[in-house]
Write a structure and sequence with these properties.
By secondary structure, the protein is α/β, with parallel strands linked by helices. It has 8 helices and 6 strands, in the order βββααβαααβααβα.
Length: about 170
């Protein structure tokens, strides 16, 4: 069982990408990725996992299209259950995030109502997302419309939301 990782230079800063044969397992901002110890987590789940430096071609191609303004659909990655299984609550929240359309946002309260979880729990699980951009946790904002918390920083969150608004055809003033 081989897993590849690479570093990807994006418009919002360096990203660490980890990819299994099915698709991305980790897309994380470099400083946060160093704290995750994802290789150890994968090996603990299955000692046969071999992590090597590679191209992560599927994920890099998806990221390039996203940043070039040609995003491809990103359904919920069902294969996570085999590689880095989310808890039932993480699964609920991450699936809800994948339902937020490009160019739109939802509040933590909205996601809490949708999933039946407390807004603070939604915030914690949103922050535990290890597939940044792919599972669009950046589309979650405060109840009052403010930008709050993001692993890549608020400037990055602002950039991603503005990028998606342009892609969705909204005019920014």
């Amino acid at each position: 069982m081989r897993v590849q990782w690479t570093s990807y230079r994006s418009p919002v800063g360096p990203l660490t990408v980890v990819e299994c044969p099915d698709g991305p397992l980790v897309i994380e901002f470099a400083p946060r990725a160093a704290q995750l110890h994802w290789a150890n987590i994968l090996r603990a789940r299955d000692p046969r996992v071999r992590v090597t430096v590679g191209s992560c071609a599927k994920t890099v191609r998806w990221l390039e299209r996203y940043f070039d303004g040609r995003p491809e659909p990103a359904p919920y990655p069902e294969y996570l259950a085999e590689w880095l299984p989310p808890t039932p609550s993480q699964d609920k929240v991450w699936r809800a995030l994948c339902e937020i359309p490009l160019g739109e946002t939802r509040s933590y309260q909205d996601i809490a109502i949708q999933t039946g979880l407390h807004p603070r729990v939604v915030g914690q699980l949103n922050g535990a997302n290890h597939l940044a951009i792919r599972i669009p946790c950046h589309r979650v904002i405060g109840k009052n419309g403010s930008l709050v918390g993001y692993g890549g920083g608020l400037d990055c969150k602002r950039w991603l939301l503005a990028h998606e608004l342009r892609l969705a055809g909204f005019i920014l003033r």
